[in-house]
Amino acid sequence: MDADTILRIRPMLTAYLHEFDGCMGRVTNRSHLETYVAGQLGDLDRKSVEPIADAAGVPPRTLQEFLSMLKWDEQAARDQIQRRVARRHADPHSVGVIDETTFHKQGNKTACVQRQYCGSRGKLDNCVVSVHLGYVAGDLFTLLDGDLFLPEKTWHGNRARCRAAGIPDDVVYRPKWQIALEQVQRALGNGIRFSWLTFDEGYGGKPPFLRGLDRLGQNYVAEIPASFVGWTRPPEILYREHARDRRRGRRRKLPRLKVRNTPAAEVREIFKHSPVLRKVPWERFHVKDGSKGPMVWEAKRIPFWIKDENGLPSRPHHLIVVRNVLKPDEVKFFLSNAPASTRLEILLMVAFSRWTIERLFEDSKTELGLDHFEVRTYRSIIRHLMLTCISHLFLAEFRLAHRKKKSGADGVPGADGHAGPGTDLGSRWTLFAPTGRIHCRAIGDNAATQRRGSTFASKANHPASTRDWDMVDEHTHLQVAEVLAL
Q1: Which of 320, 379, 470, 349 is CA-nearest to residue 77?
Q2: Computed over its alpha carbons, how large is the radius of gyration of the chain?
Q3: Higher model confidence: residue 94 or residue 252?
Q4: Among 173, 192, 224, 338, which is least packed by CB within 10 angstroms?
């Protein structure tokens, strides 16, 4: 966005940022907020502190202090983002998407940096990892939260190193799934309501995370690793001791699984050998027409019982197995706790909507400089993540408002949510149907019955393919300058 465009949107941007006045404390901080966000929205090649300050004609030191030293509440700013989304963009068909992203960094002084797998480079490298919660409601895609992952061995166990990087003593190692669960809890506390959550096997493979979502009453469709275990038939449970057990003089924990039970099996073994799954016919779904041709997957599902915290079977979930028709060796597994009556195409739509978080990361990095930060301290990085969320929400709302204004004339879906003739639905929210596509409004079929009755679960098992959804290249970037030119 060039300087002229910034001037044209300045009144709207100023009005938007006034919602965060209560988080900024002093008036000077409010001025720094507008400078920083305008810089992120601008057309600078590099959107770190110094280029932003130079473009605005302010000393770089002031913005460095704004991130690291000046007193304002970045957590309150995050809450304000979420309350605004809850107030203005509530949707009965909303989907929350959980994922992590990486930032390559040199040296060992930046908070939370260590040598680990760096997704942005596709290899082991020095990087920082952050966990994020995204929100998708119709045509609005935005980031709600972001937090740094503190490595256990290299940082958590070295508090002197943590203090040198500005990491408070109360910030300790938490598994990524625990960070994600806390983000969901915060969003719910701020009024956000998700019809669904979806995430990859890094989170779906963690039973404590799935149980935490169950306790929140949150429906999800999770990709699970091929090693995930469960039962296709519920095992029998022993609730009382037999007489011979009592004669042995040792009381055994009750309830427990009966000895003569089929052990829990990995889902990859169920896929290969289960007669229950074999009897279910494959259903074929046309996802979309991609640049390399049509994307067609076939799927089947069965009831699936997973282990609870005591190793006993939970209520039934959905186990969904999908495979690529053109590449039959590409098989994914999904798990869902949705009501038993939920249609398979709805579960697949949610499962295949994870590409949206990749688009959010790409937009935030290419358009807003999410990965351009050159600060090192913990607070500065956290504040940068929150400021990027503020910038992204403004950009998403601006684009959404202008798309709505021209939707009637250009065949963009209107209030009824259905596209006009010739519209490419591949870049929009769609449900996958055996003989075409069903609009995503159908996702609300079970909204009134969520968390009632039995449920199923689904998950994919190929780490490489989970990051390579072909849908990503179909979604347009968030660029205000292009919208204004329409």
Answers
A1: 379
A2: 24
A3: 94
A4: 173
How far apart CA 79 and CA 83 sit, in angstroms, is 6
Which of 338, 356, 336, 348 is closest to 96 using CA atoms? Answer: 356
Please tell me the number of Cα atoms within 13 Å of 15 on its side-chain side: 5
Contact 394, 16 (CB under 8 A): yes
Residue 82 lies in a domain: no
With 0.85 as the threshold, say if the pTM is over it. Answer: no
Q: d(Cα 364, Cα 368) in Å, to the nearest integer?
A: 5
Q: Is residue 210 part of a domain?
A: no
Identify which of 231, 236, 232, 233 has the alpha carbon closest to the alpha carbon of residue 264.
Answer: 231
Contact between 444 and 394 under an 8 Å Cβ cutoff? The reply is no
In-domain check, residue 255:
no
Of 100, 61, 29, 111, residue with least CA distance to 380: 111
Where would I find the H helices in 194-247?
201-204, 207-215, 243-247
Task: Look up residue 167 and give its two tokens.
Answer: 């990491």
What are 53-104's pLDDT values in tens digits?
999 999 999 999 999 999 999 999 999 999 999 999 999 999 999 999 999 9
Q: Report the number of distinct structural domains present in the chain.
A: 1
The answer as to whether 429 is a domain residue is no
* Burial (CB count within 10 angstroms: exposed 0-12, middle 13-18, buried 19+), residue 122: exposed
- Expressed as residue numbers, the domain containing 40 is 1-72
Element (H, E) at 337: none
Give the mean pLDDT of the chain. Answer: 82
Do the Cβ atoms of 46 and 107 come closer than 8 Å? no
* Token duo for residue 15: 């009005």
Q: What are the DSSP calls for 69-80, one per residue?
A: TS---HHHHHHH
How far, in Å, CA of 137 to CA of 156, rounded?
37
